[in-house]
Amino acid sequence: MIAPQVAEAAALLQALADGGQVPGLAVRIQYRGTPLLRAAYGYADLENPVPASPGTLFRIASVSKPITATALARLVEAGKLRLEDPLEDYVPEFPQRGIHLEQLAAHTAGLRGYRGKEYALNKPFSIAESLEIFRDDPLVFRPGKGFLYNSFDFVLLSLAMERALGIPFHELVRRYVLEPLGMQDTCMELPGQLRRGQARPYTRGARGFRPSIPVDNRYKLAGGGYLSTVDDICRLGQAYLDRKAVDPVVAREFLTSREISGEPTWYGLGWQVSRDAGGREYYGHVGNAVGGYSNFFVYPERELVVAILINCTDPGLQPMLDTAVEAVHAGIGRVAP
Hints:
The chain is α+β, with helices and mostly antiparallel strands. The protein contains nine helices and 14 strands. It has helices spanning about 5-20, 65-75, 100-105, 150-165, 170-180, 220-225, 230-240, 250-255, 320-335; strands spanning about 25-30, 35-45, 50, 60, 185-190, 200-205, 210, 225-230, 260, 265, 270-275, 280-290, 290-300, 305-310.
């Protein structure tokens, strides 16, 4: 029986909402395809008030990257493009040369990260138009010679992908990932308004939580712009465990950490690939955005999938989230063969 450990995890997460440390939170943890915990605590909207639910839409921030990586993997599998393709084959207007698609997905292309207020832009850029933000900046290192996590890599990657197929990026992802995997609630945010069932985004200030400043994340949909639910995120993770997301050979390439000078980056292609504090291997992603914080972990040896979504900018509670997940691991460890 692992019920006591699940109850412990639930109590830890509920305490975060009850104690005012997060506005709202949704969680789904499933073991061998069966939910151990599917719940929500706190509020999707503090002002009205509307309770959070497992079906609430949250900003998932960089958990968008595994979704994009899955689309890329399916395009590679279908022969629509190759990881070794030069970026200039698809985005010739980008002045930096020598970058391959694989390097963008692995964050080894040499692009810089956000500067100043770029993290929270509220301009209606198309993906192509957003290149003006960083296109004229020199690379931080030669492609393939370093690792620097950033979201501009995925801006370029999504532009290359949509040009390879001749359809908008969001439509490409819908056809190749969301519909096949049954992720019916995952979608692009509407600027200036909340979708039905969407949590209001918050930022914590000295006097508590306040609605976040408006942002337009459509141009960086691939790296940090999707809305989703804990159910949909777990569908993605389970599809990988069941080997239904992409061909296992292709999946292995995406879920293998790259190395720079013989040292692992702990990042594959759109996936964080590492070990937790207990030494257990996992792949997934952590995300942080204006008004959203997310955890997505897949433990292949345990056949465990974890999704935790919060409707505020990084609340600084990752150790507490880890403790809740660790409680579930402790329970599984007592019953797993």
